[in-house]
Please model this.
Amino acid sequence: MTLALIATMIAAGYALACWLLPFGTCRACSGTGARPHLITRTLRPCRRCRGAGQRLRLGRAVWNYARRIHHDATTGRRDGR
Model:
């Protein structure tokens, strides 16, 4: 197999994962939604995932952004939202 074919297969696999499983486990809290405070060691909600334990995958965030831009451009919205 050529390098281009392997790269295409990996990209297609990641795109499929972003479509089927848009949320991945938060790496900061390992999916628990809580992290120990630095000084008191009490559990606090994770700042990165806001206590949910899951974060939106980067590929899915890019897809949502591109879809929003396309939608705004084709529907004639000009207010920037």
Summary: The chain has a mean pLDDT of 87.
